[in-house]
Specification:
Blueprint: E1 2-7, H1 19-28, E2 31-37, H2 41-53, E3 57-61, H3 75-83, E4 88-97, H4 105-122, E5 126-131, H5 134-143, E6 150-152, H6 159-167, E7 171-174, H7 184-192, E8 198-200, H8 222-233, H9 237-252
Parallel strand pairs: 1-2, 2-3, 3-4, 4-5, 5-6, 6-7, 7-8
Helix pairs in contact: 2-3, 8-9
């Protein structure tokens, strides 16, 4: 059993005519669970709908730092309502993105902090997106610690920084970039991370792993991330897959 802990199957590139093929290839690849992650209110609603319609899909809800400017007075009450729906396992993806800066940084910070507090209130762990912003993310999670756990999706900073987050109880998730030739930092993190604190994801349709780079990503390709981790740790594919899934179960608090 393999759990792709971060995907965006509500993306237009997967709907409608592609969805059946993508699901079938995931099933054949042994991917029996997918967490579909929201990035704003409509995509969070779509995530919850996908989780209702498909047994193998679970939902995370939240507002991505790119979309922080979209937040209105109605956003938080609507997300708090969604948080109560079955199969909603986490609040995310939330965080800071200083690479693209699609929302002003002060707005990103404010919306990130507000959502940590909402997740705490809703009893959910948080899923963090951080790009070129790890120092500020660290300050924020130290001042506003998530009460029900947290994970970094597609962790991309140093092992030095990873140690601080691990000490605070965070999980780190690996995606396609682990398979890239220039992934020196990420490989170092994968080599050193305690085996009870990582899981795997695709971030489909983005971040396609080798050898499929250049194509649209899909959950079946999470096998490449597991295979690379197995190579780095000198363990079997099956061992890494089982550990990643156990860790995801513990993080998402589900059997
Ligand atoms: Zn992200
Ligand atoms: Zn994502």
């Amino acid at each position: 059993m393999i759990w792709d802990t971060h995907a965006h199957l509500d993306d237009p590139r997967f709907q409608k005519k592609y969805f059946a093929g993508v699901s079938e290839r995931a099933r054949l690849a042994g991917v029996t669970r997918i967490t579909n992650v929201g990035f704003n209110l409509p995509s969070s609603q779509r995530s919850v709908q996908l989780a209702q319609d498909h047994e193998f899909i679970y939902a995370a809800i939240g507002v991505h730092p790119h979309n922080a400017v979209e937040v209105t007075a109605d956003t938080w009450p609507a997300l708090l309502q969604l948080a109560k729906k079955p199969k909603v396992l986490a609040w995310g993806e939330i965080g800071l993105d200083y690479y693209r800066n699609l929302s002003p940084r002060p707005t990103q910070k404010e919306v990130f902090i507000q959502q940590i507090e909402l997740a705490n209130q809703a009893g959910l762990p948080i899923v963090i997106h951080s790009r070129d912003a790890y120092d500020d993310v660290m300050k924020i999670v130290q001042e506003y610690p998530p009460a029900h756990g947290g994970a970094f999706h597609c962790y991309s900073s140093s092992w030095e920084m990873a140690k601080v987050f691990l000490k605070q109880g965070f999980y780190l998730s690996f995606a396609g970039p682990l398979t890239y030739k220039n992934a020196r930092h990420t490989v170092e993190v994968a080599r050193n991370i305690p085996l009870d604190r990582f899981f795997v994801e695709t971030d489909s349709p983005y971040l396609t792993p080798e050898p499929y780079r250049g194509q649209r990503n899909e959950p079946a390709f999470v096998r490449e991330v597991i295979a690379r981790m197995a190579e780095i740790r000198a363990m079997s594919f099956e061992q890494i897959a089982a550990l990643a899934t156990d860790n995801a179960r513990r993080f998402f608090r589900t059997d």
